[in-house]
Each structure stands twice: as structure tokens, then as C-alpha cells.
Amino acid sequence: MINSLHIIGSRQMGGAERFLMRLVPELNSHNHRAIAVVRPNSPLRVALGQSIEQAHVAMRNGWDLLSILTIRRIINKTHPQIVQTYMGRATRLTRVPSRSSAVHVARLGGYYKIKGYYEHAHVWVGNTRGLCDYLIKSGMPPKKVYMIGNFVEMGEPSPPEELDTLRRSLSLPSEALILFSLGRFNHQKGFEDLLEAFSLLPKQMHQRPLYLCIAGDGPLKQALHSQANSLQIQDRVLWLGWQDNPGPYYDLADILVCSSRHETLGNVILEAWSHHLPVISTSAPGPVEIIKDGENGILVPCRFPQKLAAAIEEFLKAGPRLWRSIAEHGMQTLLRHHSKEAVVKKYLNLYEDLVGTNV
Question: DSSP letter string over 54-83?
Fold first, then answer.
């Protein structure tokens, strides 16, 4: 049995935190002792629950000497063979003691600053080919850089009565066509472009009213609300807030729109496919790796609201047969390359290869 620590120092829930939430329980279910090391006041502590073994470290900032020492003590106490860190703060604070045989695996899900944060790890995992290329260009040894993608849970479809209740709670007409998008409200996610694109669309398609539902929160919240008002689309844009469990909203929607200006991978695309939802996405680095335009999704240039609007309108006009075809090919891509079984197996194989090696 392989023992591993999984260390993350973020304050909020995001893509890396959700991936850790999925990976650690799966490792434990494969006869692998995986311990999560999180901040004591992190929402991840609560989300992981009591079934996952945890240790808690303050990780107040990237220079927290006390946290460095605490992480060292945890490593010495638990004797892991693998210490996997997520994002810059946890990676910077994690210094494997020289007397430990543990291998430090730095897992990256974004184009983060490498210098001063990641060089001291033993090996690196990127979740896209582009990210692995970035690591190598940043000076990491190619033979120690591995590509392992993300996976999402294949949840059960929401019961029809639950969707009916949700639709009524949102005051959505039963015949509404629903575009769905979600993420942090920052410039990187391009919600400004999505709102402008939506304002260019007709109010109805196939004699069905068209609505945009957006789940998320972040620093641009007020600016986005103001933009919707100025575009006079506020009556057809529904702000859902941050959703820890967005599954029912995927099931309620007809199309997912990813408007990101930069996206390392695009977990929302994988989640949409897992709910049999067709995807229209901007051609950010991550989406172009997993979407074949016109086959398992639709790609449009980043930062071009007019082209995004045209792509959405054309796709809506095409009708349900194309929607189902695109969604089905998306599901096939998910099962082939981003299934839980495939990704967990890659991590387990990597750990087995690394244990006992002189990295």
C-alpha cells in the first residue's frame, strides 16, 4: 500500500480544490492511504468530511515558516512515499526532509509562476500538454514532467420533479431555452464577452424564450450585474450565485457556454459532457486540446462577442438533432480520456513508478 499526502493551501473552493476532493477519496478506495492537508478554516476541510483523514496547517502565506516546519513534522509522522502539492503556496511551503524517502510531486492546473515556488519539487504533473510544455520551457527536466488530465464524477441525472421545482424557483418558463455558464467572476473567465454576446441574440429561438443562467461569484460581480443592466438583458439573465453542486443546473440547461479568455483545461467542459450537455467554447489553450470543432463541441475565437453570438445562434438554429450529436461525442471524449478510472490509474501507476526511485 502506498501512502500519500495531498497538500493545498487555498482559502476558497476552485478547480484544484474540487480535483483534490475527487482524487483523494478515489485513491483511498484503491487500497491507498491518502491524507489531505488543508487549512483549518478552509471550506475544503468541511467538504472532505470525516471520512477522509486530514491534517490541518495554517499556510497563511508563502513565507509562513511555522507552516513549513509543521508540514515537515507531518511528513516525519505519517511517513508518506508520495507528497503531492497543489498550487504555489502549498508547493513553496512543502520541503521534504532530507532523511525522508518521500517523492515530492507538484501538480499544476494553471500557468503559475515557477521560479521560487516549484523548482524544488522532484517531479511535476501538468493536466494539459500545453502546461507540460510550459514546465519544460521553464527549466523543469522533461523526463520528470508528466501529463495527467482531470476527471469529473459521473453523477446521476437529476429527477424530473427536482428540475421542475428548480425551474419554478428561478421563474423560468417551462419552454425556455437555457444557456448555462459558471466560474469565478474575473477577467480571465470572459463573462463580459458572454453578456455582450447574449445581448446580440434574439429573445426567442424556435418560439422558445432564451435565457442565460450564470453560476459564480468573484470580484467582478457588481460590474457584471451593471453590464447586464446597461445591455438591457437583466430580465433574461439569472444570477445563481456560487454553486458547490452545479449538477442540477447542468441538467436544467440546453447548452453550456464557456467564454474564457484563458483556460488551462476547462473542467466546466468535462462537467457539461458528463451531464450530456453540448458545449460552445472559446478557443482558449485548454479547450482547444479537448474539443474537436464541430465534432464534440463548437470553438470560437476568444474576446470576440460578435463571433460567439453568431456561433450560439447558428447552433441553436440547427436544432436538437445536432445538439444531441455534439453532446454524445463529448461524452465519448470524456469516457475515453477523462474518466475517473483512466485518470486514477495514471496517478497510481505514476506513484508506483516513483516509489523507491532516486529522483
Answer: EEE----STT-HHHHHHHHHHHHHH--SEE
Amino acid letter, 147: M
Query: What CATH architecture does domain 160-337 belong to?
Result: 3-Layer(aba) Sandwich (3.40)
Q: What order do you get walking across the sheet with 123-126 strand by strand?
A: 54-56, 33-38, 3-8, 82-86, 103-108, 123-126, 145-147
Interacting residues of 349 by C-beta distance below 8 A, sequence separation 6+: none
Q: Model confidence over 184-217: pLDDT tens digits?
A: 999 999 999 999 999 999 999 999 999 999 999 9
Sorted by where each begins, the domain ranges of the chain are 3-151+339-354, 160-337
DSSP state of 47: H
What residue spans of 185-304 are helical by DSSP H?
191-199, 221-230, 247-252, 267-274, 285-290
Phi and psi based region of residue 171 (left: phi greater than 0; alpha: psi -120 to 50; beta: remaining): left
Tell me the pLDDT tens digit for each residue of 256-277. 999 999 999 999 999 999 999 9
DSSP state of 236: G
∠ CA 77-53-12, nearest 5°, is 110
Domains 3-151+339-354 and 160-337 are alike in CATH topology: yes
Superfamily for the 3-151+339-354 domain = Glycogen Phosphorylase B; (3.40.50.2000)
Per-residue model confidence as pLDDT tens digits over 292-346: 999 999 999 999 999 999 999 999 999 999 999 999 999 999 999 999 999 999 9
Question: Residue 351: pLDDT above 90?
Answer: yes
- What is the chain's mean pLDDT, rounded? 96
- How far is residue 186's CA from residue 224's CA, in Å, rounded to a whole number? 10
Is residue 124 classed as helix, strand or coil in its secondary structure? strand
Non-local CB neighbours of 79 within 8 Å, separated by 6+ positions: 3, 100, 102
Record the pTM: 0.89
Instruction: Using pLDDT thresholds of 50, 70 and 90, give the confidence band for residue 156.
Output: confident
E-assigned strands of the chain? Answer: 3-8, 33-38, 54-56, 82-86, 103-108, 123-126, 145-147, 177-184, 204-205, 208-217, 237-241, 255-258, 279-282, 298-300
